[in-house]
Amino acid sequence: MGLKDKKILLAVSGGIAAYKSAELCRQFIREGASVRVVMTRGALAFITPMTFQALSGNPVHTELLDPAAEAAMGHIELARWADLVLIAPASAGFLARLAAGMADDLLSTLCLATSAPVVAAPAMNQQMWANAATRDNMERLQSRGIALWGPASGDQACGEVGPGRMLEPSDILDRVRDECFGRPLLKGRKVVITAGPTREAIDPVRYVSNHSSGKMGFALAEAARALGAEVVLVAGPVSLATPAGCTRIDVESAREMLAAVESSLGDAALFIGCAAVADFRPREVADQKLKKPVQNPVLELEENPDILATVTARYPEVFSVGFAAETGNLLEHAAAKLDKKKVGLICANDVTAADSGFNSDKNTIVALWRSSGELRQSRFGPDHKKTIAGNIIRLTAELAGWQ
Ligand code: PMT
């Protein structure tokens, strides 16, 4: 009864995936939630209100101006009643109206009137999903705090293959439990996360570094915190705000980062090395700015400590997750790092892919781990780093056995 007494407004818009929402409704009820269903006119072409009325045990709402409903549960009451508004499936048409802030039917009006979180599980043809108009609408919705879950990739009812399938009801149920009603997967657990680049000084004004913005690591900190963890975020030089509720330690160099990580790890359950740590630092650091002409303009480098490998060697009781930023042979190199650095999970990140890797708001990750010696993998994205971060944290909790 993980959703006992939670009030879920399940909104169904027009699409063949509407049949999956009936199963979702059943699962919510089985988990102890109260469910009220709103259907758009498009949804009525795919499934009848009677199905949802029978499953939810409540009348189904379809009209904005319905005298009978206004006397009982009109749109404002419904908007106030809900702890969560979940639109599943969310059609391209409905998402466009939501992005435009329309208030021309019950569901769009209700979405404007509610103060509850709004989550949409899109479902549409893959070409419609890829269309620039849909992309723009998705950006607008996300920037307003509306969460988009999915779509998944695969065979579509229209015969095409690609991203556009609604997530399975069981996946949506898990995410509602974890992300909306905070099944605190990481409650009572301390998580140490590194993020951003390191800077290795050449002289007082110059350094060796890389393009990491810290966005991926900060998203992981936010996701871990949302799941109840105590989070220590060890950040290289980045210009991001600290996620609410996280403790931040700012560092510059790899050696400072290692010291901050070790000082925080004592009672930690999980370490995530997301930082792009400089592998090398200048052998000599000039104490004055180097002036032209430089006698010998050769920068001699020496190796930095490997923070991740140090953590797995010295703190074997801590579950460790690494990243592998690669520019070729992604899975091969990442699998080698998984084994060499002895981590429980490695997130392979092709940093040459479009809309991915360094400094992008989005990413695509292939998570690799071993189960009874066999290499396993799970692909996340392309998606916003915040969504990917949630995926990584949930997979980590599962692998670590924190269910
Ligand atoms: O910060 P963003 O702009 O959001 O970009 C995200 C990211 C691309 C930086 C991130 O997704 C990512 O891939 N981080 C890992 C970057 C990296 O240094 O990868 P690597 O393959 O060189 O290192 C492998 C692992 O060892 C990483 O977990 C790294 O943190 C760790 N490492 C590496 C070197 C070192 N001296 N110490 C380490 O701990």
Helix content: 25-40%
Strand content: 25-35%
Q: What is the fold named in CATH at topology level of the largest domain?
A: Rossmann fold
Count of separate DSSP helical elements: 15
Radius of gyration: 24 Å
Overall CATH architecture of the largest domain: 3-Layer(aba) Sandwich
Strand order of the largest sheet: 12-11-8-13-16-17-18-19
The oligomerization state is single chain
Most strands sheet: 8 strands, mixed
Low-confidence segments: none
Average pLDDT: 93
Instruction: State the separation between the terminal residues, measured CA to CA.
Output: 15 Å
CATH class of the largest domain: Alpha Beta
Please give the domain count: 2
Count of extended strands: 19
Using the alpha-carbon principal axes, give the shape. Answer: elongated
Q: At the fourth CATH level, what is the homologous superfamily of the largest domain? A: CoaB-like
Q: What structural category arises from helix and sheet content?
A: alpha/beta
The hetero compounds bound to this protein are:
ligand PMT
What descriptive keywords fit this protein?
403 residues, alpha/beta, Rossmann fold, 2 domains, eight-stranded mixed sheet, five-stranded parallel sheet, 15 helices, 19 strands, 35% helix, binds ligand PMT
